[in-house]
Prephenate dehydratase (Viridibacillus arenosi FSL R5-213), 582 residues
Amino acid sequence: MTSKEWENRVAYLGPTGTFTYLATQELFPNEWLIPYKTIPECIEAVASNQVDLAVVPVENALEGSVPLTIDYLYHEADLYVVGEVLSPIAQHLMVNPKFADHWEGIEGIYSHPHALAQCHKYLYYRFRGIQLNPTTSTAAAAQYIAENPDQCIAAIGNSSAAETYGLKIVQDNIHDFHFNHTRFFVLSRTNQRIERDHRDEQIKTTVMITLPNDRSGALHQVLSVFAWRQINLSKIESRPLKTGLGDYFFIVDVLEDENAPMMRGAMDELSALGCSVKSLGTYYTYQNSHD
Amino acid sequence: MTSKEWENRVAYLGPTGTFTYLATQELFPNEWLIPYKTIPECIEAVASNQVDLAVVPVENALEGSVPLTIDYLYHEADLYVVGEVLSPIAQHLMVNPKFADHWEGIEGIYSHPHALAQCHKYLYYRFRGIQLNPTTSTAAAAQYIAENPDQCIAAIGNSSAAETYGLKIVQDNIHDFHFNHTRFFVLSRTNQRIERDHRDEQIKTTVMITLPNDRSGALHQVLSVFAWRQINLSKIESRPLKTGLGDYFFIVDVLEDENAPMMRGAMDELSALGCSVKSLGTYYTYQNSHD
């Protein structure tokens, strides 16, 4: 099949076998998926029209927000969020098949720093003293293990990484917290939400708000604008404006359509209060079942 | 001088030559400074009475909060903040002295990922294509360069790292943003603020607040408690509770003494609203001049 037969080109944080790959594959089973090495490269790929959409992680239930994604969307890119994917995160310990019976003697463990952190207790009780080696992704760790078949070493990652790189899972679900999820944004140049049958009912709008100059109580005023209208927020977070310690912008997730009358009123009032306000668009949530 | 002659043992995020070392040294010129490898180890050292105080980074003007510090203080430790230090961050490129005249041909650059990010534009325009290697600290990068004198490689770090490891600074102030600061917490088991002559006038209290179960508008109510009393907040930030996506606690910096009558009233009302509230203590700010 040539590239022209695909409807969309979708960038994702690669390589094949990452958690972002799993999220992307389930939402876009029939599109052309293209791996990029870093979050900024994914975002730039869609901003510069190399691809139509990009899928990047934005928040994890344990680690919190992915600052690189939020900061890049605020400071560098002019894109819309057209969908979000929630994926359960399950981490497994995997080795080259020839060490499948000797995995308890592994001499080093490789994974993304977040994955190592997510398995902290397991690693502490089971492999204390064994060297932990950070890699750029869980899939890169699996690839490294596959490329060094003579070393008795292990990777931590998902089942797709094991499959992609021909490794054997010797301990599954070794993550410490069993409700762990990651949230991914689907980004586009056009403000046109993705509408598939398996979407959640609840709609969400993400707004970036910069307060007027350090006026005392300004954030309280901003929240009042939403509160008296009974518009619910599912998240509010501050990030540095990069102009000095103590200067922040806020990223707010609002459970309302940006085109609803109450929401338009709220946005107008925020501007009238002296805030700089930017909506990243209204979108649906898709629950991912893979791990 | 033996250890018994020191008044306090102070843990800091080491090794010698880190930015935390500089901050610690200026506030505690006459104490026994003990380097620890990680933020949790620093915090555990004071919690378990191995040391009297610990100095750890909590926020950077560009990167935002240090999640490990905030999460560890919320979930794992029961300590007080007894002071904060603000330090300017200046990054320099340094090599082994024998390469001082050939530094433009360096084949690899080593530093902490945050330092590499802080010099992103410089590195992009000056050393595009050269391999960037992450290390656990800027000082560890300098140490690596010193230990590999035959390789034409460079570290990025502060002037103390260059001095400690015998390196030559060949390009100074290569960081992209020139107002960059890092904020450090001084932690103690006892709620007794550090009072030195060169403190700032403004007092600050850090409070951790968990909202009642997902009640709509709860954060707005929390801010109202401070707003009607004209108590100013210098920062509010959400962090995951680690119980699932969408569950957060808030860390709030309040410009008031925790023992002031208005502040006691505010804390009592927050509890009455169903919030779980924990004050980390009231403390002074110390401006650090070193880079």
About this structure: The mean pLDDT of chain A is 92.
